[in-house]
Structures are given as C-alpha cells and as structure tokens.
Amino acid sequence: MTTQSLADSIEGDLSELPVLDVHTHLCGPKLGARGLHDVLLYHMVVSDLYSAGC
C-alpha cells in the first residue's frame, strides 16, 4: 500500500464518522467560556496559539 492510498483510505473512513473528537478539553455540561478570563487564563492557551501559527 502506498502512502497516498493509505491516506485516501483513512480519509474515506473518517469521512463516514458522524463525529470526530478533536481533543478540545471541553468541560462537562458547560461547553463555553464564561467570560474573557476563561479564555485568557485557559491552561493551554499558549500551546493552542502556537499550534494555530500565532
């Protein structure tokens, strides 16, 4: 199996999934920030910004 055919196979399988967990550290029943402080003081904000290319 070539790298391209493996990638195509994985992409095809993933496209059939109803949900894909992107590992976002959501907290229980409250899925949103309560305010700006929740965003700015989020424990992984630096790594999230770095990953986003900031």
Q: Give the H and E element order.
A: HHH
Give me the count of strands. 0
| Percent of residues in β-strands | under 5%
Structural class: mainly alpha
Biggest sheet layout: none
What do the pLDDT scores average to? 80
- Number of DSSP helices? 3
What Rg do the Cα atoms give?
17 Å
Terminal residue distance: 36 Å
**Which segments are poorly predicted (pLDDT under 50) over 5 or more consecutive residues?**
none
Key terms:
mainly alpha, single chain, elongated, 54 residues
Can you give a write-up of this model?
- The chain has a domain at 21-54.
- The protein is built from three helices and no strands.
- With 54 residues, it is mainly alpha-helical.
- The longest helix is centred in the N-terminal third of the chain and has 13 residues, at 3-15.
- It has helices at residues 3-15, 36-40, 45-51.
Q: Topology, please?
A:
Elements: H1 3-15, H2 36-40, H3 45-51
Quickly describe the structure:
With about 55 residues, the protein is mostly helical. Helix content is about 45%, strand content about 0%.
